Structure of Rho GTPase activation protein:
Amino acid sequence: MAASMLAPSRASTSSTTSSSFVPPSRQNTITSNSDGATTRSIRASKRFSVSALYLSMSHDKDIEIEDDLARVQKILRDLKSKISSQSKKNFVLEKDVRYLDSRIALLIQNRMALEEQNEVASHLDDATEVQEGAFPNDQKTQQYGNLFFLLQSEPRHIAALCRLVSMSEIDALLQTVMFTIYGNQYESREEHLLLTMFQSVLSAQFDNTPEYSSLLRANTPVSRMMTTYTRRGPGQSYLKTVLSEQINSLIEHKELNLEINPLKVYESMIKQVEEDVGELPADMPRGISAEEAAANPTVKEIIAPRVQILMNIAESFLETIISHLSETPYGIRWICKQIRSLTKRKYPDAKDQVICTLIGGFFFLRFVNPAIVTPRSYMLVDGTPSENPRRTLTLIAKMLQNLANKPSYAKEPYMAELAPFVNKNKARMNQFLNDLCEVSDFYESLEMDNYVALSKKDLELSITLNEVYATHGLLEKHCASLVKIGQDVSRLNMLLQELGPAPPQVPRKDNRTLTLPLFSRWETAIDDLTAALDITQEDVYFMEAKSVFVQLLRTLPAQSPAVRRPLDLRRVGDTAAKMKDLAMFRKGMRGIELLNQLRDLGIVSESDGYEILRDEVEQELHHLGNLKEKVIEEIGKLEEVFKTIRDHNSYLVGQLDTYKSYLHNVRSMAEGKGRKQQKQNVLGPYKFTHQQLEKEGVIQKSNVPENRRANIFFNITSPMAGTFVISLHYKGRSRGLLELDLKLDDLLEMQQNNQDELDLEYVQFNVPKVLALLNKRFARKKW
């Protein structure tokens, strides 16, 4: 295999597979070291990798297995594929919403010209589902297939590109890298190649950062890349499992105020006294310093119990995070491992505390704490937490970050009150951060996977035209810089020259999703395993026989005498060879043929019932039996993740619909369409019961007595675009109890300011849910 297909560094390679048995023909692979202890050669450690490889290469010849395990594995594969696809859709929508958030804010403040409004409108009009398509000719398909196979299988090119692009370019590149080139988040080859790219990026980051204290902290394309990686399916699943219950439990206590900043506590005291008494006493002056506030006896008295409650809550969060160590995604743990390894190499005298600080800088600063501070953005809660819980979550995140950083001083003096939490848990946090790094490497399995990729006929990429053209454009723009930083780009250059200049981005409405077949320009499919790998033909026969009999035993009816224990492998083969099913007949004949070949080679013996092979078949069946329960458990967890990701997608789509509605209203007014014309297009009234709105979450709090709610209903009318009238009625009364005029821009402004509650005296509405309801019922056809 060409060196270019291997991982960039093999210095720390360790096999992730092992075998408890070595066939007689392979006894020469056991050697003795100077102490007389036996060691296994690399060849022997490849057995299970070779087995997986053989099965992958002969997949189209396999019988269709339909036992319980196969069925749940298919469900799991489909679910993982859906999560990967939905994650990409959400990433694209989040980009749109981020862009429009800033633009709509200008509209709200009346600071955007008509031309800019039209530009935003075109962005919205284009934000539609991308249709299927294809390149106009086969030559371009083949050339881009070569290019993207090279980019995928040699991650160093993308790693270098990530370091060269600007902040304005990084999101488009990350979309293509994280969700397309390595978009199958649960496929080991793509995940491992992505991680080797991270290793290259991190290594360069360490080499080019003079001060370790600034490593991984600045907002750079590299840090954005690391954050984006944590937002993929496995990271989201972990956050949901570990943090969701804790955060939801905390935000229920809306009135619990745990502010410990003395100045804010003092200001709150002043406000309360003014509300209660009307004027301030002489000993409560305004405008005092933070030091004076901290010295105030009443402030101290208020803060003391809050500090203890905060430490208890933070302790609970820490305990949950530590207890879920084993559920931390492998990729995130592997990145932590690389940070530790690179730190030791770059700073050989660095103390363990310094190393743990850098690991914590990634795990907490980039992964866990953002989810604690903004749980809604991470799909952990349904709505934005109210002010008090939001501040508590911020303080908890600061405490965890301080614990991971272990500073000798507090940046904010009032945080020094929480030092007992840091002192108590220092050693515990150190141990946890080191334990995060204790995962095996994957280089050997990646080498096997790359062999499989060369041999597959169906390796392909689902990618959009604009992703192809944008990546082509970035490579073209930065190719000279790639050479300057020491990259060997000879193959990359050759492909770029054949492709010619990068085409411009097409309008979003003309963008198309392509299925791009991937194959290497320089590597050929492997036909002879024994020549390609350090194994013998006997190894291949042994592994194929094991695979054949496992498949047969999983496919034969449970009541068949052939599946009774102890196993009789020849009887299994004979039974299959007598079946009418052609695939089973062929497998049965092949099984018998392999038994004879292995017997003639002296690998197995007929006299002991092929004991060596039989034992390994039994072990594999036992492993697969245990695997079913694990697969079912994983399906349960991922179904919850998929539901969360879909709910978030609905929320993002709702946001875009809201912006469309608002923009339509603003542009109508700006273009001089009078109110008279708009009033002719009255929509509604639409009637909603109290029970209906409560069930949909629009009513988040009600002061209406339970026994009267069945008689309450609401009428909502839109007399003109962007304006709504909500009236509350009681059955049997001709006039409404109250009426409220609402403007869409007022609701948007409330949402931008995180004001989730709209008070209608008798009920409190949830602002995002109201917006979603209005969009659903009052979307005007002209947009």
Q: What stands out?
A: The CA atoms of residues 402 and 408 lie 10 Å apart. The chain has four domains: 14-130+528-672, 131-230+457-510, 234-329+355-436, 681-778. Confidence is low (pLDDT under 50) at residues 1-61, 672-679. The two ends are 56 Å apart (CA to CA).
